[in-house]
Amino acid sequence: MGSVTNSALEKEHLVHHDHVHHDDDHEESFITKYVFSQDHKMISRQFLITAVIMAVIAMTMSIIFRMQLAWPGEKFAFVNALLGDKWAKDGILDPNMYLALVTIHGTIMVFFVLTGGLSGTFSNLLIPYQIGARDMASGFLNMLSYWFFFVSSCIMLASCFIDDGPASVGWTIYPPLSAVPEAMPGSKLGMTMWLISMSIFVVSSLLGSLNYIITIFNLRTKGMTMTRLPLTIWAFLVTAVIGVLSFPVLVSCVALLIMDRSFGTSFYLSDIYIGGRPLDNVGGSPILFEHLFWFLGHPEVYIVLLPALGITSEVIATNSRKPIFGYRAMIGSILAIGFLSFIVWGHHMYMTGMNPFLGSVFVFTTLLIAIPSAVKAFNYITTLWKGNLQFTPAMLFSIGLVSSFITGGVTGIILADSTLDINVHDTYFVIAHFHIVMGLSAIFGMFAGVYHWFPKLFLRMMNKKLGYIHFWTTLIFAYGTFFPQHFLGLAGVPRRYYTNSNFPMFDNLVDINEICTVSAILGGLVQLIFLFNFFYSMFRGEKAPQNPWKSNTLEWTTPMANIHGNWPGALPTVHRWPYDYSKPGKEHDFVPQTVPLEDGEHDGGGH
Amino acid sequence: MKLLVLLAIVLLIIAGHQLLRIIELSRGLKKTTEWQVTSSDNDRMGKIMVIFMVLFFAFFFWQAARWNERVLPLASSEHGLKVDALWDANMYLITFVFIVTNFFLFWFAYKYRGLANRKAVFLAHNNKLELAWTVIPAFALAFIIIFGLKYWNEIMSVSDKADKVIVELYAKQFDWSARYAGKDGKLGETDYRQISGSNSVGMDTADVLGNDDVIVRNEFHIPVGKEIVFYMRSRDVIHSAYMPHFRAQMNCVPGMITTFKFVPIKTTMEMRKDPYVINMMAGINKQREKFGEEPVEFDYLLLCNKICGISHFNMQMNLIVESQADYDAWIAKQKAFKAVAVKP
User: Fold this and answer.
1) Which CATH number describes the domain made up of B165-342?
2) Which of residues 269-298 of A touch B (CB under 8 A)?
3) ipTM of this complex
């Protein structure tokens, strides 16, 4: 059926090109071109810009609560200006608002920036381009995917402006805290809006993911076998499969929570006395919620990370002017990570009262996932070895990604070990771990993608020097923010504390918190360099040549214009894998995938 | 607020304007297009890679050296010592991996920076190498898994000691209480519907086993050298009973009874005389002096470590570890539930 679709699309195109010039074959109104666009490139841009805005909001939130942690009780006019008298009287952050900021920061970063933003931008942009397709399998569903994302973003942001404040029970929304409105103000309307927003988000994610999978399986151009796909596409494919299999579980998890909240059921509730009265709910279990939540929650980590790793694979190979080392091992690792990500969720629950034997099983499966992760890290490093490294800003961010992937990954080995998890569970050690993996690695992958594919996104180049400054300052301040938090965890500081000042045992950690906060503020400010570069280059950057990075993949064979259908004539035919960089006996140090194999030439890394 | 936003926008525009001029000036000066990476760019970036690596490692060792005296003291429980030993072994291993791999990453970035005339080697894969770095991590992980699970099973096994102290930790927004089994050695049944002002932990008054139970708040005591079996309950939302000095933690889940056990090996007084603790407390009291607060002595603590609402950050109870004799004397002074409950 897929090939039928493709050839049908193809036929439509040939007809068009036979009769009319391509520039005016799709006369579109402003609305269909920029708002309800069905073109994958426009949808990609919509996702990216929405994600950038969401990221700025979530980062500002984090700076506000980091200031509270470093200087509890201090008055900040700026906090008062942003949050108003209700939530920051005299500039002192309210404890409820602290928890709200922590919750919304986490939710936005994990879902709206690193899931919607990362996959939405780059899967949409690169899948049709790199597999040689005119567009996504269903442009209409793709458009819906973005607009559901947009609506859910709006609901999430709107929840910040209601009277009781937004959801503030932590992004993991464990009941009964999230189920019983009497438990805290942030468990009232704000929580309902969070649940609605996330349900809509899942619709967006599913529409997108199904589209990505169908497109990759059915719309590859002639010669583009699965083992000639760039690793980006492999990563997006597995990410989409994980999303399709795990997000529906979040919906069911959320649906049961909505039932408990609004319709008196007891899926997650039992034996609760709150607000001066016993509740009628008996027989439910919060542990059930945790299982359902983390059945999505852990694959989600890889939904966040795999696209970043895919982008890095492509950027590192191109800019090392070398084939990615161990292409098939990389595919195997992506598949292994994808599979294992479904059987490790219990490592979030060692201390929840879950049967300890079940915990042992999860220790085993979780540590297994370190093997494909290690293979990937080693392969990246070996790709650099004896390369001819071109330090574009994208390349720098990719190297930064590998560094932080290792730094954050090794502490994962500690946390996966249930015995060692006992004492650092839910402490700042965990915060340090997952921020170095997600806040550094995944975000660096996103930056690498933006710098690398900016020419395809906006047909212009970003400024290199600003990119350099942005990278080095970001790397330094990001490590400066999160590395010291390991030590806070070793001192036993729990996460989600409004202040540590109620415990004398944490008084000697004040300066560590200050280092984190100062780094976070500076790290936030240097993002202005990126924002400027991004928006300035969008309109006034240098015009991009067709293949600025001398890359092999198909997206660089399209003209530098936003053509509906991507290629003006027939679709390109693929003759080789995407990593023929510096191949001996070739005139240039790159051989695009469209160049036919010579007599006796081997494909896929053979000489 | 509007003023501030306006100010931010104005500042942004000014900063943008300045940057813009710099860019456009530099663009005019150079023949190559700005975005193109030259070999001098590569040279400079490669060198910064090495400088960054050195600074990064220096930062790591600086933190480890400087803050080593601020992390939790050596475990005060039997199993905790094993946890600490395992922790150290794992930490050495991952620190080694962290340093070696980061070293190669940044070193290669420097060494193979794209200087003029450099040619990359066409190397697509090497099965032996790839096998090696699949198998070696697998062995290292096997070691980690085996030791981790051995201790895990020991820590989580059901107590088989006859001579033990049973303590129930009861969590509610936002404080703790502890319930002791009393003379009969058995905790009475509970029923959350019977919770009231005089029955804060929801004792089932029909169960006579509970009559001699002892309920305390603010501070609880346990004897040193004896196995303490904790049962955890919660009244309202999930809390987590975290006793970091003992490497002990377990969530308190409404509708469930969870459990954790450990043998304390150091009394509170012994800890106060421990050189590491003395040094740590000196640091703490120095900071407190700066804040203008009273100096404190070391105390074991029970903290809540699962987000539970507005005062999550202040949900704590002191824990005193003392000799059996002191403990006996202390528990004898506490009133049994019946005696407390009868008084209206």
Assistant:
1) 2.60.40.420
2) 269-274, 278, 282-287
3) 0.93
